[in-house]
Input
Amino acid sequence: MNDVFGTAILDHQLGKCEEDIITSTSISDEEPLKVSYLFRTFEQMPELEQTALSLAKGTILDVGCGAGSHSLILKTKGFDVKSIDISPKAIECCQLRGLDNAKVLDVLNETETFDTLLLLMNGSGIFQSLEQTPKILAHLKNLLNKNGQILIDSSDIKYMYEDDDGGYWMDAHSVYYGELEYTVRYKNKEDSFQWMYLDFDRLKTACAIVGLKCKKIKDGPHHDFLAQITIK
Output
């Protein structure tokens, strides 16, 4: 991996000349993403993210923290926050922004336990596939303290397959329509990886398989939602 997101994030933090990140998926064309969006304030965040931050409690693990914007808000409120990301340059940025407990770490290698796990900006992406989802949820369950919670947002992207007649086209070779290949490009670097948008019903079913309870907290304006997951 070329650490495209991390390179763009660190460039922005250091005030270097920057370009937009160019994103695309296996079912959508290229779109620009301003790097500054990853540095947004609480007031600039979507309502789903604001709600998740207001529900966070106790010790917190910010999974896939990126530039650390969610972690910084929670730290300012006095929470004990650990921020993790697989991007070394993103974590370098987080440390420069004052997050002293920011680590380069895949959540699947995390061993500490927390009161809140935060998975935002389509947190279901880390599952990568429907098949892997219960296994990863089982690991996240093991990271929860008693009465702990997982706050996760996602989107049901079925609408992206709708045709002009109101019907839906689907790839017959795809196991689930939410499983996509996601590509990001910045300057001369490009990364592609598996990413998943998981609808609420399938998230709830996967949770039930591993003894977790899933409750929808709020719907967003773009087929997205925030869910709270707890131990049954």
In short: Residues 61 and 117 are 5 Å apart (CA to CA). The mean pLDDT is 95.
